[in-house]
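Provenance

Sequences were taken from public entries as deposited. Structures were produced by running a predictor on each sequence independently, with no templates supplied. The record for Gliding motility lipoprotein GldH from Christiangramia oceanisediminis is shown for reference.
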Amino acid sequence: MRSEIAFSFLVAILFLVTACDRNRVYDEYKPVRGWHRDSTITFDLGELDSTRTYNLFLNIRNNNDYNYSNLFLITQIQFPQGKVISDTLEYEMTRPDGEWLGTGFGDVKENKLWYKENVKFDEPGNYKVNVKQAMRKNGEVQGIEELEGITHVGFRIENKE
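Predicted structure for Gliding motility lipoprotein GldH:
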């Protein structure tokens, strides 16, 4: 009897968690260990509904090994017919007093960062998103060769509603 109640409780919790996230269209994370300046993280989005409008997010998980208050990224959206849109983005990772932004307990914090809003994927075919880190120390031309402290990079698409 107890196991039936526990099972019913777990099913109810699972239903609530998934029901609260019905705007999610795509959500994937890639692990990172020492993010090299030439390393590109690619997300294959597949074919998306051309009649819908979406909001796009970059999700970054970092730990206390991340030594900076901000994060520079270079992103690209590759369209099925060959068009590419590139952006250089800067995100704040800490408050002015050095406290981490984001959510989470303990060492790891997660940041859901706005990338683009009201996006339509109107070309038929498969889309890709590429993400590279573009961090450099003040006064230096060369980027940071191995960026430590970023543990996962994620990409998320939500229905605009």
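The mean pLDDT is 89.
The CA atoms of residues 8 and 14 lie 10 Å apart.
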